[in-house]
Amino acid sequence: KQEVTQIPAALSVPEGENLVLNCSFTDSAIYNLQWFRQDPGKGLTSLLLIQSSQREQTSGRLNASLDKSSGRSTLYIAASQPGDSATYLCAVGAAAGNKLTFGGGTRVLVKP
Amino acid sequence: NAGVTQTPKFRILKIGQSMTLQCTQDMNHNYMYWYRQDPGMGLKLIYYSVGAGITDKGEVPNGYNVSRSTTEDFPLRLELAAPSQTSVYFCASSPLSAGNTIYFGEGSWLTVV
Predict the structure, then answer these.
(1) Is B107's CB within 8 Å of A43's CB?
(2) pLDDT over 90 at B101, yes or no
(3) Min Cα separation B51/chain A (Å)
């Protein structure tokens, strides 16, 4: 059974600092990995999707890497802003459909 | 640009009552999903559907039922509500390819008392 872990559960950084969020998974036979952002009281917004054949994906200030062999993904957010404060979840996709196994999330606070 | 719409947004149920959470999407996606999120936790898959007339259980299906009579709609039925079903419920959809982005609704907050 796939298990996804995100450590730390919470993170606080001053504005301008780079954010590094970690995600680990137990079964390396994944189809894809996605990073999501969740604001309080809201649904999830997809940030980046990495296919199993890819090593990284980039969008603006966001960069996500994937190392299947070690069961790890890292989300980098450059030059953090207060608007980046949210919970970030990673999720691993199984081969069939898009069924996702989620980590518990990392709650990020960027202080002005 | 509606995307995935869930109703109701908030609901309080008494133990033993039943209700249906509605979910509709206007993107013509084949795949639809129901997840629940308990406080401070990640999401867990309840049921999913790969197309009209086809549904299957996820990780935590007990106490729930679903149907998929159309591509657009994927209601989640709670029978005999229990306090353990107090949670936030998210409906989601994605296109046919398993590699495509998944779109979530804004959630339905359910409390069973």
Answers:
(1) yes
(2) no
(3) 11
Q: Is A10 helix (H, G, I), strand (E, B) or coil?
A: strand
**Quick one: which of B90, B28, B45 has its CA closest to A44?**
B90
Chain A residues whose CB is inside 8 A of the B35 CB are 102
Question: Which of B33, B41, B98 is facing A104, going by the closest CB pair?
Answer: B41
CA B61 to chain centroid: 11
Q: Inform me whether the C-beta atom of residue B94 falls under 8 Å from chain A C-beta atoms.
A: yes
Joined tokens for residue A52: 């199993």
In order, the DSSP letters of B98-113 are TTS--EE---EEEEE-
Query: pLDDT (tens digit, 9 = 90+) per residue, A3-32?
Result: 999 999 999 999 999 999 999 999 988 989
Helix (H, G, I), strand (E, B) or coil at A31: coil
pLDDT tens-place string over residues B5-22: 999 999 999 999 999 999
Closest to A109 in 3D by CA, of A21, A25, A23, A34: A21
B33 in contact with chain A, both atoms CB, cutoff 8 A: yes
DSSP code per residue over B29-94: -SEEEEEEE-TTS-EEEEEEEEETTEEEE-S--TTEEE--SSSSB--EEE-S--GGG-EEEEEEEE
